[in-house]
Task: structure prediction
Amino acid sequence: MLQKLDIQNYILIDELSIDLSKQLSVITGETGAGKSIIMGALGLILGDRADSTVCRNPEKKCFIEGTFHLTNTEQYKAFFEANEIDLSDELIIRREISAQGKSRAFINDTPINLNELKQLTSQLVDLHQQFDTLSLGDTDFQRSVIDALAGLHKDLAPYQLSFSTWKQNEKKLQQLVEQKAAFDQTESYKQHLLEELAALDLKENELENLEQELKFLENAVTIKSQLDASVQALDSSDNPIVQQIKQIANNLEGISKWQPDFEGLLSRLKAAQIELADIASELERWQDKIDFDENKIITLQERLSAGYSLQKKHKVQSTSELIAIQQQLETDLQAVLNIGEEIAALEKQVIAESLQVKKLATDLSSQRNKQVEPFTKKVNSLLKQVGMPNASIKVVIETIPYTIYGQDKVDILFDANNMNKYEPIRKVASGGELSRLMLCIKSLVAQSMDLPTMIFDEIDTGISGEPAKQVGILLQELGAKRQVLCITHQPQIAAKGHSHLYVYKEQKGSTTNTHLKTLSQEERVQHIARMIGGDPPSKTALENAKELLA
Result:
């Protein structure tokens, strides 16, 4: 509920504070007094865009602040948590507009963007302006009306969950089918590549090791000759190195008897002798192992050639890369087998989900169809009440492919002249007819659900007399259940308000200011009398005003 609206430095308003009733508040005033300006200010805290021209004094900012009381904070909890805003029973929305056109919005002093602001205020205020009746021609709005009357909010939730799950899995299934088709096109080629790699059966670093081994074997004769010369020099010649070192050690051993400092040198020579003798033995063993084996060389060359060919084919440089490609091919081909099983399982799941969606949608359709006749009767009765005795509506529900709201397309058709010729509302209804039709529908919907604050801007366009009185009665009935704000030019409607706010302009020198005051009962009589018969009001107009207020 909107408790208070504060406006500063906005167009013709220097400073204005409006306290609103919990029930029906009517706003009246002469044309041009500033009623639409107040609606414009209200629109700013609801998320409308603004520019610098709204600043009355270009040297100061424009401030619009609305104070709301929340009766059900749980309803807004998700929004406040998502935007990290403290939630309490009192909610303050503020807009600031600078003379340079820069605009900022705040919810409980927390900065917020306009989209987020609109997301919240759409749950707080239902603003019906002169051209908002265009939504009457929207099929989604028409369906939502029937759903509200049928109380389908709880039933829609499980349907929409089932529908969303079904559509997601249907999309996933389609993607899997397309993926399998793509796999199938390359499967045989990937299988061929895998068979080539599997046939070679490479081990880690095998090609690199084979390449080194082949070079060794190809140079076996040279290597063996060099080994022979080395062994000869160390241990098999007429004067081998090992023997020479042994002789030197013997010489030093004699010297060390007289000079202890030679004992260290002697130990090192003996160690060198042992090490060189061991090296000679190791070289001899290599001599025995090395042999030029042409058949083995050919075998190695063939395997290396096969490996190099696959490296070139796959554009890689190492054995490990070939092994990685082999493993990936195995994974891909296994995925082809798995995807077939996944598709089969998902197909069964999608069929089951579609049956569930169908069942829930059929139930929604049944409940909607049950509302058609009582809704039609009630609206047609209200149309007569608000001065449209020849007008009537007809509701047509057509079955369509499943959507997030079911399988129904709801059309409310309108006949303005009792010609039994029903056509879409947007084609045949005038502005005044649309306004009254919208009021009739909203008054019915308001009985079935908790609507936010409802604001009607000049809904009385094109009516007067008894129809205006009946519109006032409908608004008064709405106001008994929830907060309603109505701007009107009709005394019959103005008299139905629980609170009466009067907008007027005041000229001071070259400055024009818009003001607003809450009228007392006596002031209401005078004002409504002027609305009936002009200024000054006649005795008859005063009596009529008292009668309307009674």
Summary: Confidence is low (pLDDT under 50) at residues 130-134.
